[in-house]
Fold this sequence. Notes:
By secondary structure, the protein is an alpha/beta fold. The chain is built from 13 helices and seven strands. The chain has two domains: 3-150, Conserved hypothetical protein from pyrococcus furiosus pfu- 392566-001, ParB domain, CATH 3.90.1530.10; 171-317, no CATH class.
Amino acid sequence: MTEPQGIESAARFERARRKAILDDLIGLIRGRSPDLLSFEAVQAALSARQQIESRTPETIPLDKIVGSVGRYRDFTREFLPRESVNPQRWKAIDAMLHAQAGLPPIEVYQVGDVYFVRDGHHRVSVARANGLKEIEAYVTRIETPVPLTKDTRPEDLVLKAAYANFLRQTKLDQLRPDVDLEVTEPGSYDELIQHIMVHRHYLGLEQQREIPWEEAVTSWYDKVYLPVAAAIWASDIMEQFPNRTAADLYLWVCRHREEIAAETGEVPPPVVAVSTLAEEKAAEKEGPARVVQTVKRALTSPKTDDLTAAAAKNLSEK
């Protein structure tokens, strides 16, 4: 390592260390973890299964490397070096990069849309500190029923694990491959299971037979969930709840229908329940009288039956 290069590498390392300290402080203040995802925690939570390992290097985006195998506490989410990182090794790799020697490919697991470093943590840290966008890697793909994205944080894993368990119970990812029932509230998956069980009970009474579990699951999804979801997609209500999912709103709408039924003696169709929930949200700033007026107007408004068509029309116009 030449002296000028050694000085530059040392300066880059010190900048990265200072930024790591700042990121940890900001994360503490905001309550948003700056840690990498632990591969072991993800594997346990999502029951991830190993797939075929590729020994042909691939170019992968550095910003999609969000986790580590065994070293998730040594670097921040941005792969900035913390105190436990060996500064001499980091600076030597930085010097190697600038000496045109090139860096050997790292080794990663791919889970969903993101990557976890098996070998090459310092190389990732150095590459990011130098402003690189991509890196060569040997990739082993891991199968999991629940998608991970680069925005997934350690605190999100509880909900991810609950979703994986829900899919194991229902097999909806196999029965309806395009299913997306992610929620943002703890306990919501238990509530969805209860909905399926109630639907199965009444379906059995209606047809005078024991309904197999998988039949009940698909019937609930096709005949109960999708009509409500279609009404949600056909409205603008998602814009009023930007941090919520369609499955969140499905549960809220179901509760809302029960409230309206208790007050009026009539169970409103999904379109009405969605419209009143949306208007109530908009009316919150205008006081209780506006909310009552909104509910009364919605109950007397024409009822749209073709929810799927309404959703399709709405989506085509956006």
